Amino acid sequence: MRFVVLILVNVLALGAAAWLFDGIEVNGATRGDQLLTLVVVGAIFGVITSFVKPVVTFFSLPFIVLTLGLFLIVINALMLLLTSAIAGGVGLGFHVDGFLVAVLGAIVISIVSAVASAVLPD
Q1: Tens of each residue's pLDDT in the chain, 122 residues
Q2: Domain residue limits at 36
Q3: Long-range contacts, 35-40 (Cβ 8 Å, 24+)
Q4: Dist. CA 97–CA 79, nearest whole Å
């Protein structure tokens, strides 16, 4: 059940970021196709943030301490770009146009995820 809630939070956060920024695109013929793409991309993003992000965070710990935690935004942006690359590799209609858009998207995703995690049950 926790994984379903994680995917739901990721779908909400990715959808908000795609809605706010033109550089984050979710393509599909219909709204249903776009929603299905967001659900699959949300699952991919959940797996990446569960397995890849802790390893990257561990090895980036000196930079995180040096920047007082701001490097975590860069790590989140890199996870979003990795999600975009994987989604493009499997033929999903999700694309992030560049690093700056990924940083802005990562900030929005972090805020929406924090709010949704506070509202939704564990």
Answers
A1: 788 888 999 999 999 999 999 999 999 889 999 999 999 999 999 999 999 999 999 999 999 999 999 999 999 999 999 999 999 999 999 999 999 999 999 999 999 989 987 887 76
A2: 2-119
A3: 35/11, 37/87, 37/92, 37/93, 37/94, 38/11, 38/14, 38/94, 39/7, 39/11, 40/87, 40/92
A4: 14
The single residue listed with the structure tokens 């994987």 is 86
Asked whether 117 and 49 are in contact (CB, 8 A), the reply is: no
Burial class from Cβ neighbours inside 10 Å (0-12, 13-18, 19+) for residue 60 reads: middle
Is this structure's pTM higher than 0.85?
yes
| DSSP assignment letter at 121 | -
Asked whether the CA dihedral 101, 49, 58, 112 is positive or negative, the reply is: positive
CA angle at 91 for the pair 89 and 92, rounded to the nearest 5°: 110
